[in-house]
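Customer escalation, tier 2.

The customer says the design service returned an amino acid string that "doesn't look like it belongs to this structure." They asked us to rerun it and document both sides in this ticket. The original structure tokens are below, unchanged.
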């Protein structure tokens, strides 16, 4: 049990460091110090910093699938499951959008991942691709497939994307959530 707890702490502390300092700037030694272990002990859990990063990505992919499934939305692409897209409702999309916003802002792991991608998107092609997969064109395309229109998707997702930055800087986080709710309520009609 201790091994699993340490393994999870390594992921969390690594992601906190990556979101603050950038992926390339963080060393294995810094990660080990943040966890409170020696670097050689870290290698009992992960082969390398890259292995830690790959585990973070796997965690995020799993959480994305779980979040979509929890809102009765398709987990696969439209090409793979067109029937699920045809059955998705706007109400489910609104519920999912609200849940995703809170997830990306209030869940410490997801919020750190989002901040890391935001910082790193200009430093590496891989991080830029991941930023767009998770926060840019990926969600926009998903919403477009659900709504049947790129323009409608932009109208729904564009303000949400902007509110991530507003949320990060807001002293009163609840006011941003109110803005989000007001925006999403317009889509229920």
């Amino acid at each position: 049990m201790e091994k699993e707890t340490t393994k999870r702490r390594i992921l969390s502390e690594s992601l906190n460091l990556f979101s603050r300092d950038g992926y390339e700037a963080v060393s294995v030694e810094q990660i080990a110090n943040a966890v409170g272990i020696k670097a050689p002990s870290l290698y009992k859990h992960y082969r390398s910093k890259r292995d830690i990063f790959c585990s973070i990505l796997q965690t995020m992919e799993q959480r994305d699938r779980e979040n979509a499934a929890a809102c009765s939305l398709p987990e696969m692409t439209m090409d793979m499951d067109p029937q699920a897209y045809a059955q998705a409702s706007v109400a489910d999309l609104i519920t999912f959008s609200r849940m995703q916003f809170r997830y990306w802002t209030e869940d410490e792991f997801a919020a750190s991942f989002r901040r890391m991608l935001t910082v790193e998107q200009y430093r590496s092609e891989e991080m830029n691709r991941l930023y767009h997969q998770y926060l840019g064109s990926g969600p926009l395309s998903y919403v477009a497939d659900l709504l049947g229109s790129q323009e409608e998707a932009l109208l729904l997702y564009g303000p949400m994307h902007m509110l991530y930055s507003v949320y990060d800087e807001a002293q009163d986080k609840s006011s941003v959530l109110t803005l989000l709710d007001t925006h999403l309520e317009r889509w229920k009609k």
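Tier 2 assessment: The sequence is consistent with the input. The CA atoms of residues 115 and 150 lie 26 Å apart. The radius of gyration is 18 Å. Sent an explanation to the customer and offered a walkthrough call.
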